[in-house]
Amino acid sequence: MVVWTDQERAYIKDIFSKLNYEDAGPKALQRVLIVYPWTQRYFGGFGNLYSAEAIQSNPMVAAHGTVVLHGLDKAMKNMDDIKNAYADLSVLHSEKLHVDPDNFRLLADCLTIVIAATMGSSFTASVQAAWQKFIAVVVSALSRQYH
Fold this sequence. Notes:
Blueprint: H1 6-18, H2 21-35, H3 52-56, H4 59-77, H5 82-85, H6 87-96, H7 102-119, H8 125-143
Protein name: Globin domain-containing protein
GO cellular component, one term: hemoglobin complex
GO biological process, one term: hydrogen peroxide catabolic process
């Protein structure tokens, strides 16, 4: 079980309160698909993903990025039990979608970059530490079904 300080909880809630989901979610997913092109194999139904420009202008990529980011709300609202909150998503990604669990970490890294760029100097080391802890718990919860 993860123990959260009041300050960590406040930092996480603050990050989410400032996020533009329709901007940050697509940017994070686009970055994953561009930087780690092997992740594109899970998005075969999304059409043309053959170049950075095609990925960045793909409305299905943008929509799914927004959905993913909204999915993190569930973790924020269930910080004391993220593992159980994400149990169904872990099963879905493992048993139905067959997503390599390392891709959750790649997306988390890309989302961290997007958030840091968006927040600028307010993404302090303390804020980042709380964020990294939070996102590591999310990645672990999503990967749980694989163990």
